[in-house]
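Suppose you are handed a protein chain with no further information: no name, no annotation, nothing but its sequence. What can you learn? This example shows the usual starting point.
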Amino acid sequence: MAHTVDATPEMTEFPPDPGPAFLEAETLGDGLRRARAASGKSLAELAAETKVNARFLTALEQNDWSSLPSRVFALGYVRAYAGALGVDEQTAIERFKRESPDTSTALKPPVGIAFEDVRRHSPVVVGVIAAVAVSVVGWNVFQRISRMQAPHPSEITATPPAWTQEASTEEGVSLGAPLPAPPDQTVPALYVTRGLEAELTGIDPDDPNAAPVAPPPPVQKAFNPRGAVYGAPANASQVIIQAKKPGVLVARIGEGRVLFARQMAAGEAWRAPIGVAATIDVSDPAVFDVYLNGEYGGALPAVLTPLAQLNARAAQSARETAAAQARAQAEAQAQLQARIAAAAQSAPPPAT
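A reasonable first move is to predict its three-dimensional structure. Written in structure tokens, the prediction is:
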């Protein structure tokens, strides 16, 4: 018994095309909602497929633009939602832009109106400018022509006779030797107040038996900052190291710790603190000058110099200066008392 086989192929059912439903809708939200209904997908399925939150998809279907994030994200949501529904993405984007204009871009004035006005009035403006230019040029030419005169000979054709007679009667002038300067323009002699030097120094310069005055000690050059000054403050330092040329200066304290280190430029200086046990390490000792209590103390003695040695020199120099000042003050006081005593002895006794 033969079996008959039905050769009719199975009919595959395809979901309806959502495109016409999207295009026939009045708004973008209605079109998306109709397209979703035609596709048979739920909001949850479309949210999982597009990776867009379901509340944003709902906002697009309800035309609730205020619930959407920034415009860039909103355009991306529209594109993804339209692609998932099988709707033309560019059409959906254009409808979204028309129905939700971008308020962040300022409106621009219409283009072409000003150009049309200029083109309409340009012949008149050009004509007026040309007329004014021709008038100005013509006026200047007329003024120049009216002021021009034909050349004529000079009225003075010969030297007047009176000039010749006056010139012949004048006597000749001769120059002699220069005269000396008047007395009021000579340099006056230096005026010296008599007795002033003896009053100030206690030694009469006219006395041949007077002891010669010892010359004062030479004044060393003082510290002159010619760049940045680093280190301790001025009232807490007696030693200043200044670079004459570029060089490296490193101050190390116990256990290899670095107190100060710098590539010094010419003119820069470092004030060493008082009471710190450190060692000065330089690249070239001849490059650095030492100032003790603000006065020049020579160059650094060696590449490695103990800071205590420099501070001791500064303290010794301060003590010597203080002692010299004390001696000078004591001598001046003794001379003053001697003059007072001599004046008292030479004074006549009071009349009885």
